[in-house]
Amino acid sequence: MKSQLEEKFAEQYQKNADAVYFTPGRVNLIGEHIDYNGGLVMPCAITLGTWLAISPNNDGKFRFKSLNFNEQTEVESNVLHQKNGGLWSNYPIGVINEFIKDGKEISGLDFLYFGNIPIGSGLSSSASIEIATAFAINDYFNLGYDNLELVKKAKRVENDFIGLNSGIMDQFAVAFGEKDKAIVLDCETLKYKMVDINLGKYVLAIINTKKPRELADSKYNERVEECQTALKLLNEEVKLNNLCDLNAEKFALHKHVIADETILNRASHVVKENDRVHLAAKALNAGELEEFGRLMYASHQSLRSLYEVSGKELDTVVDFCIDYEHVIGARMTGAGFGGCAIALLEKGFEEDFAKHLTDYYVARIGYPGEIYVSDIGNGPTKL
Ligand code: GLA
Fold first, then answer.
1. I need a surface site. Which of 6, 191, 284, 335 has the fewest CB within 10 A?
2. Do 271 and 299 meet the contact criterion of CB atoms below 8 Å apart?
3. pLDDT score at 214
4. Is residue 259 part of a domain?
5. Cβ(275) to ligand 1 under 6 A?
6. Residue 10 within any structural domain of the chain
7. Helix (H, G, I), strand (E, B) or coil at 16
8. Does the beta carbon of 13 lie inside 6 Å of ligand 1?
9. Where residue 179 sits, what CATH number does that domain have?
10. Catalytic site residue 196?
């Protein structure tokens, strides 16, 4: 991929690339919609990702081109920029703003991106572009930020520039991923542990529903607000920083302060999902994959009925998995409202699974999804 991108860079910019970087996407194994509630999450980086080639220019501009999108953008260096509609280049421009706000003298760079993460599929293509940009700039201009600082910058881009009130999980996962390891991240303290993913006789299948994520951002922000409402109500009775300060037992003692059924359901999901991640981390450590799979199904059920971020397409995939004897656990991953599901699938059944799932899915949804078997990969690197 590196040499192909270098070739394209030379074609597009009529000069050679100076450096090429790779940044992964991510899947979240379990712990959904709890990062912004101070919970524990368990994502890992995947080997799909974003390649980025850069080279300096002499006219003090930043130029962004991508092999995935037709649009190209050019902006002045060293001034803060506004968000421009729904352009993909808002992500790198937001990152540039973060460095400019810090007073860093960065200027004159041409960028060419290529990504093989399906866009809008819930595998964090946007976090991957953000971290790719931040990592490359930090490296190229020798700015000396550590990865956690880059993660915080990328999260600010998402929250303040793009307008999605997301948590820190995606940017963290993309920046801290390690081959064959899951990250068990406490989103309140940002303490984390790397846990070996030993899937034994199973592989991690990723199933893209290919459902366009209409209104996903506004529904996401609505969930964040619902959690804040629950937290406010609970705080009338018990002092909490985050919903995930409560476990299910303690939540049961205080939940009567939440009269609204929807808000109660949202909070129940958050608290129980957080408990499930603690159990899942133990199960993974002990090699109890069937228990891990059971927790995945329970997580999906909760996201479907209590948190209401699944949908017909994701549910169809998980319903198929429940009845397919060579899968031991499946769930939606990421924000939901479409996007991808993941499944623990017995090795050797990849083709059989793909065929039968596709038939089942097409019969109910009307078009096929896409199925990948993914490796767990590393965080950002200079190639
Ligand atoms: C999106 C957000 C994350 C997280 C997940 C749901 O991917 O960017 O911060 O909230 O949804 O778990």
1. 191
2. no
3. 67
4. no
5. no
6. yes
7. coil
8. no
9. 3.30.230.10
10. no
